[in-house]
Every structure is written in C-alpha cells, then in structure tokens.
Design a protein that fits this description.
The protein has 296 residues and is α/β, with parallel strands linked by helices. The protein is built from nine helices and six strands; from the N terminus they run αβαββαβααβαααβα. It has a six-stranded mixed β-sheet with strand order 2-3-1-4-5-6, with helices on both faces. It is globular. The termini are far apart.
C-alpha cells in the first residue's frame, strides 16, 4: 500500500488583542477649557479674611515628580517652561533631592496667585529615610517653618527650637497633594503605602482634604503617549486610578492624571489643561476647608 501524507489541520486564527481604548470617555473632560480655568484661578480669592495665600503641601515618594509638578503649574500660567523648584535629573541617587521645606507661589505674568505650594523631602519606604510621616503631618498643621532642613533619622519634635508651637491660619496647609507615578503600585514597597495611609488618617481627623496627582501617565500607556486626549478613554489609565483609589482610600473624584513638563521647551495646551483642572480641584478643596475652619 502506498503511504499517504496527512493533511495538516490549520490553526484557528488568533483572537485580536483586546482594545486598549474604551468606546467613550469614562470621565467627562473639556479639552478646550484652558483659558476659562486660567481666568478662574487668576481671579481666585481665599474665603477667610485672615488668609492671603492658601498653602498646599505636596508630598510623595522620591522621584515621583513633586518639584516638576510645581514647575509645570508655574509654566502653564507663564506660557514658558519654568524651573524654580530644583529637580534632580541624574537618576543616580534614590534619595530625595529636596532637603528643606520651601514654599513656591504660582505666577501669572508678574502677579503671584493667592496659593503657595510647599515642597517637602520625598518619602522612602525605610523607617528612617526620606521625610518622616510626622514631619509631613506637622507641616500640614503649620508647625514646620520655611527653610527647615529635614533630618532623615529624626522627625521634628515639639521640644525642638524650630518647632512652631502656635501656628496661625496662614502657617497651615489646607490641602495635601500626593504626587505619585502611574506605576507606583507595581513596584513600591508596602511600607511606603503604609506611610501614606498613616498620614491620610491623621490629617483626615482634622478635615484636611487630600488629592492624588498621578504623574508619568504618558509613560504608562502607549495610547496616551501618542495622544494626551486619550487620557480618559484609556483602559489602562482608568485601571491605575482605580487601583490608587482602592489602595489609599482617596475617592476617584480627587485623583487626577497629568503629564509634567520634562523634555519640552515650549508649553502645550493639552498638558496645561490637565494640570489646570487638577489645580482647580486642589484650590477649591483647600478653600472649602478654610471656610469650615471653625468646625474643627
């Protein structure tokens, strides 16, 4: 009998990869509101007569982009790239580049807007490295003065000479902004998350609102890397924000994805509007807390 060759069975076609984009945006966002947001923030006035500048503390892990976030906000109003808050771009040191507490106003032309962002040493997972949880909490409550040099091994104590025993309203911060990179929960130590939770609990007891600004979103999602306007149709971005909300307990309404200015030499409307929308929410929440000051 002659031999017969078996006919190979064709493989079924591979299913198409899942669509990384949603059919419609999961968060309503007006990409044309930049100028309206700028005018609103330029005309903002604190609700309490004793406070001329609302102070906002910016905290987060080392390398998350805290100083870059402050510079990027400044850039949106100046219409040029600003770099007043010094940023370490060497990438060779895992420790915080920021050592002292310093406040930065946001400028529109020659006018300083009525809010000040406080930049603090970055958080690190280890118990005695980076900014201490107590230092962050004390800064929110106005006990830490501008220029204070943080001690990685020992937080500021009420017995220390530099401790501001009787802060007034103008010394206090009325919103805490966590600046976190998009992929933080994929690589970070749980000890860092525990630090953030401790801070959140302590300041929540005093009614201090918290906002999360998620940076490096363009690096986290190829869709967004090509087009920032895909931010709210990206499944990956939505998942990262939902994970952040679940891990930290911050509501989704208080989590904002942004792109900081990094290698750009000119400002960009799409970058600006994301930053401005985050700033609007931060300032509104801070002013709401200031308005309710007598309740606490």
């Amino acid at each position: 009998m002659g031999s017969s060759e078996s006919t190979p069975v064709p493989r079924p076609p591979s299913p198409p990869p899942p669509n990384p984009e949603l059919d419609k945006p999961w968060r309503k966002f007006d990409w044309g509101q930049k100028e309206d947001l700028k005018k609103k923030l330029e005309n903002f006035c604190p609700s309490h007569p004793e406070v001329n500048y609302i102070k906002i503390l910016v905290a987060g892990e080392v390398g998350a982009g805290k100083s870059s976030f402050i510079n990027s906000l400044d850039s949106t109003f100046l219409g040029r790239i600003s770099s007043r808050a010094l940023v370490d771009t060497s990438g060779g040191d895992s420790h915080s580049f920021t050592k002292n507490l310093k406040g930065f106003t946001i400028r529109s032309g020659k006018k300083a807007l009525p809010f000040v962002f406080k930049d603090i040493m970055g958080l690190e997972p280890e118990a005695f490295e980076g900014s201490q949880t107590e230092d962050i909490i004390n800064t929110v409550f106005g006990h830490v003065k501008d220029g204070y040099e943080f001690n990685e091994e020992k937080p500021l104590n009420f017995k220390d000479q530099q401790f501001n025993q009787n802060p007034n309203l103008s010394d206090q911060c009325f919103c805490l902004v966590y600046v976190l990179p998009a992929d933080i929960f994929q690589y970070t130590d749980d000890r860092l998350i525990d630090k953030l939770k401790i801070i959140r609990k302590r300041i929540s007891e005093k009614g201090i609102p918290q906002v999360v600004v998620m940076t490096k979103m363009d690096e986290a999602c190829p869709l967004v890397n090509k087009d920032l306007k895909k931010m709210y149709t990206s499944k990956k971005i939505k998942e990262k924000m939902e994970l952040c909300s679940a891990k930290l307990g911050v509501p989704m309404t208080n989590i904002f994805p942004v792109k900081n200015y990094h290698n750009e030499i000119d400002t960009d409307d799409d970058i600006d509007v994301l930053l401005l929308k985050a700033l609007e929410q931060i300032v509104q929440l801070a002013d709401d807390r200031l308005e309710d000051i007598d309740s606490y």
